[in-house]
Structure formats: structure tokens, C-alpha cells
Design a protein that fits this description.
The structure is a homodimer of 435-residue chains. By secondary structure, the first copy, chain A, is an alpha/beta fold. Chain A has 3 domains: 151 residues, Nitrogenase molybdenum iron protein domain (Rossmann fold), CATH 3.40.50; 185 residues, Rossmann fold; 32 residues, Single alpha-helices involved in coiled-coils or other helix-helix interfaces (Up-down Bundle), CATH 1.20.5.1300. Chain A is built from 17 helices and 15 strands. A 6-stranded parallel sheet of chain A has the order 1-12-11-10-13-14, with helices on both faces. In chain A, strands 2-7-6-5-8-9 form a 6-stranded mixed sheet, sandwiched between helices. In chain A, helix 5 packs across helix 7 and helix 8 packs parallel to helix 9. The longest helix of chain A is centred in the N-terminal third of the chain and has 19 residues. Chain A is globular, with a radius of gyration of 26 Å. At the A-B interface, helix 5, strand 4, helix 10, strand 14 and helix 15 of A face helix 5, strand 4, helix 10, strand 14 and helix 15 of B. Chains A, B: Belongs to the histidinol dehydrogenase family. Chains A, B: Pathway: Amino-acid biosynthesis; L-histidine biosynthesis; L-histidine from 5-phospho-alpha-D-ribose 1-diphosphate: step 9/9. Chains A, B: It catalyses: L-histidinol + 2 NAD(+) + H2O = L-histidine + 2 NADH + 3 H(+). Chains A, B: Catalyzes the sequential NAD-dependent oxidations of L-histidinol to L-histidinaldehyde and then to L-histidine.
Chain lengths: 435, 435
Amino acid sequence: MEKCVVLRLSNKDADFEAKFRDLLAGKREVSEDVDQIVRDILDAVRLEGDRAVLNYTRKFDRLDAAAMADLTVGQAEIDAALEEVAGETLDALRLAHDRIVTHHARQMPKDDRYTDTLGVELGSLWTAVEAVGIYVPGGTASYPSSVLMNAVPAKVAGVERIVMVVPSPDGVLNPLVLAAAGIAGVSEIYRIGGAQAVAALAYGTETIAPVAKIVGPGNAFVAAAKRRVFGTVGIDMIAGPSEVLIIADSTNNPDWVAADLLAQAEHDAAAQSILITDSAELAEAVEAAVEAQLKTLPREDVARASWRDFGAIVLVGDLEEAMPLANRIAPEHLELAVADPEALLKKVRNAGAVFLGHYTPEAIGDYVGGSNHVLPTARSARFSSGLSVMDFVKRTSILKCNAENLRALGPAAMALGESEGLSAHARSVSIRLNL
Amino acid sequence: MEKCVVLRLSNKDADFEAKFRDLLAGKREVSEDVDQIVRDILDAVRLEGDRAVLNYTRKFDRLDAAAMADLTVGQAEIDAALEEVAGETLDALRLAHDRIVTHHARQMPKDDRYTDTLGVELGSLWTAVEAVGIYVPGGTASYPSSVLMNAVPAKVAGVERIVMVVPSPDGVLNPLVLAAAGIAGVSEIYRIGGAQAVAALAYGTETIAPVAKIVGPGNAFVAAAKRRVFGTVGIDMIAGPSEVLIIADSTNNPDWVAADLLAQAEHDAAAQSILITDSAELAEAVEAAVEAQLKTLPREDVARASWRDFGAIVLVGDLEEAMPLANRIAPEHLELAVADPEALLKKVRNAGAVFLGHYTPEAIGDYVGGSNHVLPTARSARFSSGLSVMDFVKRTSILKCNAENLRALGPAAMALGESEGLSAHARSVSIRLNL
């Protein structure tokens, strides 16, 4: 293959702002319009339950099951998967699991109950979502690490029922995925996928009781289905292709920076790897190192396409200038591969996860760091966060007045009720105050 | 009008489960299919900016503005509104504002930074969303209290730019809404609404810089537009018609219970008021009191339609039996109007807000309690929470390894990377460890 020509920008250039805006606005995904098909699938599953799920599984996954029992994964199958997986990988999965549990346990919110100066009691009580569905893609994107990252926060939150769906096209199922589900303590597993799996989780069927929230990445059908069932159930963010922004100074080994850029690029031809540096020398060296390393990668095609089409190297006058650009990019992953990462960290406003210093390749966060690898993509770190325990709990607010403080607050409530034309609101107060 | 015949159930009846399921499954809204129109409006605003917004405002709001400047509300107009609003109402708005600020300030999450047993540094840092859009409906649903409930949590979270959009059909704008915006410290106000306002907030126009998140209720067009721009920006829940569940024992004054049921019913013909009680006597008395009070309500038509079509009285053997039913209903508002509300509170799993005892009518929570009145409707309290400061902040996770603990964790990350077919992930670790 030919050498990639990667986009190179410098914030000294007169047209920098325009080119940087183009970089920000660049669409890396063609969004297929599958709305009508998905609508039909959702309707069919809602009306016909299991029968529709079986039909679509036959059609899309080429899996001819007579009954949902044949698509249900039992403990024996999970045990077999745990046997089958190599010891080293199983140990790594268990280490990852334990570290994810420890980190996420710190995220549990605390109940708050207090009495204010008027004697009114207020509060916020947190409870776990009762049942959660986890979508796991089939095929090459069927990652055991993602099973852990989705299931563990739910488990830590106290979700009683965790239902995993994973398509097994032509009957093929990755034993690592089952092993991860076993380690994480998933409650139920079904070999189904696509919009029909999302519908089964949202509406329920004769076999699958409905859940209250659905998380996990999927293809265009899954994304469209999640968007449509939003409201009936909760959903997580719609995941886009992955991305990394590395801010690097001249203290770096260019081979390490190149390796991190390519770790992102190998995910997907639509992935994006961006380097911002104050060192023209480092920029040159990294570009050369990327080219050299690309040639030795098993997933060279994917990584090369990503780097060629969406990669970028941005030269800035000094590292301080990098931060406003980084916050505009709002990257999923931000590596601060600089001598003093803490100084730059203080200026981070929008980023899913930050990796500090030279010894924290983003891949550590993907697997065994303990933090979650489900992170906001496509600039959504401007308004959303990575998956956490908070996604599996909900807050109930508490209010308790007595006769005395109702008398103090009531007239204001009545005034506002009347001002909004809601007399019955006002009366529900006045009737208690004999007004 | 004729006396309402309200649905009456008893959990002693043989067909109770079937009838209760029907009650749960009941749709209270006809969802208009406005997807195609909304798609066209979004596309037009994205491509043509201000011009499209002006055109749609002319068409839908019958407001002929030559330029966006004419649709921009300045400080003078806010000051005039503050002058115009009656002193008592203004004082009530200010009291509400201050109480909402105090309560929401307690919701601010704290940063967490720690070093684990291996010496790996981890953490969660919270930052505010930079810019938020608040949609305020026009017409009769244009509530100043909702302006406070949406704007204050954003302000408390530290959002720098709060942009309010509110349609003014035929030029009519509720001065109370402007006054509330002034009190809350909204940054920018535009007299626009519908899908075109959502589009302007999400994509930006020449006049309106884009925001990162859009909150606030709206009609079918607004809801469909929010669903479509989700991903480009964050959105809050899609709000449905309001609802209350009152659990009441024989210690109640039936007139008070009836007043609370009607305070909900007067919102909207699609609102829902449900009473669960262990007292057949109270049930009878409340039903009679509702009928009597209905006749004196300015919004009798609306409240009567709601009570007739969606109201229900459920008789249970004892109060303990009420709680599993309440958790299945997952009400937006739950009143525990019983002698010992704390005992029942312990059993609440799914509810947006709980109002305890005989002296906490839900209307206090709507206005001056301090907690938020933007709460999950249509059973979504199973998976979501009322609006809070948490909706206007996002979390960035932090990971920092050194050479030593990278050596400890690295091999497991490499094993998982290789097991997922992601060699460049493994290499980004091994290259640092000279493996």
C-alpha cells in the first residue's frame, strides 16, 4: 500500500480556523436510514412476541430455532466457555473485572435527607434500576471487555436482573463473551440481536420479561431501535466510532505515540486519531513511526484507512494553545503525554477520559485500568459522561411539610398556582390552611 | 355535565391483575407522526440558519420578523416584565428561586481522585456543560415555575450560557415567563419555538451559537425534534402528561385528597390521578368530594375529562399491599398521605418525587418546596430521575500509570487486546515495557 498522507495543520496558518472547523464538522459515519425497517421489526415483536423474534433471528442470523429455549444460554454453556478460554486470558478478565468493581463502587451516590430552616424536610433517595438489558454485538466487535464494562456498573449499582442479548450469526458465539458474562454475573443470556433483540428487551415477550433500561453498542439497526424505544425504556448514548486525541511534547518517544494513535485507528476505518504537539520534530518522527508500524499490523487495512481518512497532526506554538482546541474536539480519549500532565489536566473541560503521562497508553483504560471504556464519542463529551453506576440508579426526591411550615410556604405556592391559571393547585394548599 | 364514573378496582377481585395491567398499559397520548415535517424543518435550519428560523416563525407563529434581532429579547424587555408582574407574584417567584437554588446546590457532585494499591492514580472530575438551551412552551403551558425549574439547576451547575427559546404566537409572550428568566439569570432569550427553535439551538445559526444540551417540555414537534437531534446535543427526557398517585389511609380528610387528585387532573385532559387506599369509606368519600369540587373549578372541563378517562381508585386489603402496585405504576408524583409515611417510604422503589404526610400537597413541590418539578412521567421513574444539577455536569475519568504499575497491569491488558484481535492495543503496552 501507498504511504498515507495525513492531514497536517498548524495554528500559525492563516486558514487554520477554517480547516480546524472542517475537522470538527467531519462526519465519520454514513448513517443508514433504517427507520422504516426498524419500526416494522419493533411493531412485529410488540405484537407477536417470541414468534417474531424467532422469525427475524432465522432471517437475519440464519439461525433456525424452533423455540426461544433454543436461543437461551444456560449455565452449562457458560461453564463450558469458562473451561474453553485460555487460563491467561481468563485471569486477565478476572483482574479486569475486580478492578472495574473497585473503581465503580466509589461512584455510588449517597442518599441525602435534611431539614431546612423552616423545618421542611427534603431529600434525595437513590435506588437501582430493577432490570437492565445489555446489547453485545456479534462478529468481530463482540468484545468480552465491553461485557464487563456494561455489566459491572449495573451489578455494582444493585440491579437485580441483567439480561444480555448477543446475536450468534450462523450459530457462532464468542466463548470469551460468555466467559465475561459468567464472571460479571449476568442473570440471563439470549442469542438474539438486531432491532428484534432491542424490541424484546423493551416490550418483553412470552419468554423475556421486559427491562427498564438498555445499554450497549450496536449497528445502525440497533441504534435506530434504541432511539425509538427511548421513553418506553431508558437507553445509554448512541455510540459512534472511537477516537483519541494525544497531546504530546518533545519529551516523548515517537514510537510510543505512534503505537497509541494506531491502537485507536485499528478499531474501525471510521475511528479517528489526532496528535496535537508543540514540536515539529516530534510531529515528523511520529508520522514516520506510524508509517513504519502500520506495515507490521495484522489490521493494517483498517488502521491505514482510519489514519489516512480521519487522522490529523496539529502543530501549535505551545502546549497551552492545545487545550482550547482539545476542548472543542471534546475527545472520547485524551492522552496528555507531556512532562507536566497535571498542568494541562486543569484546563480540560470536555473529554470522556484522560490518560496522564508517558506510561498510560489508552489501552490500559480499555481493559484493566478500572475506569469504564464506554465513553462519549463524536464530541458528545461536551454534554455527557462515560458509563457509570449513575446510569443504573435513579433518584427520588422527598418533600415533607407540617402544618406550620405549610402555612409559611403555602401562600407563595397559591400565588404562583393562580398566576399560572391552575386554581386546583392553589386550592390543594388553601383547603389545608382553611383559607 | 354528568357525574364522572371513575375506574374502581379492588385487589380482592379475581380479575384485578388483568385490569391493573390494562391501567399500566393505557396510553394517554396519541403520538402524532410528525417525523417527516420535523426532519424537513431541521434540515432547513441547518442549511439556511436564521432565514429558515424566520420563515417558520412567520408560518407557525404568525410573527413577521425581518431579522433575528426582532426576535431577540433584551434586558429592557425583561426589566419591563419584572415591573409589570404583581408584587406578590414576584415575591413568590423569588422565594421559589431561592429555595430551588438552596436545594440544588446540595446536588453538586464532588471530584474524586485516589491512588489504588498498585499505585495507579484514578479519578472522576466533574465539569459543567458550557451552553444549555431551555425550551419553554408558548400559550397556556407557558409556566414561569418551569423556567425556574429548568434554569436554576443549570445555573447552579455552573453553565456559563443559558439560552431560552419561547414561541410568542401572534406576538403574545407571558411577562411572568420573562420575569422568571430574569430572576434565574438566563443569558439569552429568543421568541422562537417548535422544531425550528430546537434546530437553531442544536446546530446554531448566524445569530444563535449552538448549545450542547437542550431541556424543557414541548409539543409533538418539539419532542420529535429533540429525539432527532439527540447525539448532536444532549436532551432531557421526553415529557409526557403529568400524573399523581396518592396512597391514603382512613386518617385523611377526603376533601384534601380530592383537591390533590384534581390539582393533577386540571393540568391536562391526558393527566392521570390515582388513589390507592385501604379504606372503602375513604374511597367513597373522596369520589364524592371530587365530584363536588369539580363543579367549582375554572378548569372543570379539563379536570373532569382527565378524571373520567384516566382516574382510578384502587382498594387494597392493607397499605403494605399498596407499595408493589405503586412501584409498578412508577408515578411521577407519589403522595404518602398516611399516618406513618416513613414506613411506606422505605418500600418506594420507583417514583419521581414523594410527598409525605397530610400537609404536603404535591403543589408545594410544583412551586416552592425547593426540589425540582421536572420529573419522570409515563412510568419512566423505573429508569430515570427528575431534573437536577447532574443533568448539567459531566464526568471525565482519569487514569495515570507509572513505569512500575504499567509493568504490573500491562500483561493482562496485552492478553485481552490479543484475545480481541486488537494487536495495536497490545503493542501500545508492550512497546513501553520493551516486551
